[in-house]
Amino acid sequence: MDWWRKILVACAYSVLGSRAEVLELLVQIQHSPRLTIVQVLKDSVCFEAYADVSEYKETLRLLDARKKALRERLPATLAEFGVSL
């Protein structure tokens, strides 16, 4: 199951009050091979109650770090394929 399904399921668990399942899915999202759209986590009312929870904060931190690393690699990747801006 990819990150977007995990976020949808975590949101449903959040609405149902199943905190342990939400936290478990947040940790799984950290290891998604695809780049997660962080705003889905940041802007969803489903996760407002988790704003101060370490698993939530760590998930956002790791996803932001991954996005930053990809941005830093972008110029070299574009150059490799002969793309200029």
What does this structure look like?
This protein is an all-alpha fold. It has one domain. It contains 4 helices and no strands. It has helices at residues 3-16, 19-30, 38-43, 54-80. The longest helix has 27 residues, at 54-80.
Beta-sheet strand percentage? under 5%
Rg on CA atoms, Å: 15 Å
Q: Main sheet?
A: none
Number of distinct beta strands: 0
Mean pLDDT: 92
Relevant terms:
single chain; 85 residues; mainly alpha; 4 helices; 0% strand; elongated
Give the structure's gist in a few sentences:
This protein has 85 residues and is mainly alpha-helical. The protein is built from 4 helices and no strands.
Which helices and strands occur, and which strands form pairs?
Layout (H helix, E strand, L loop, with lengths): L2 H14 L2 H12 L7 H6 L10 H27 L5
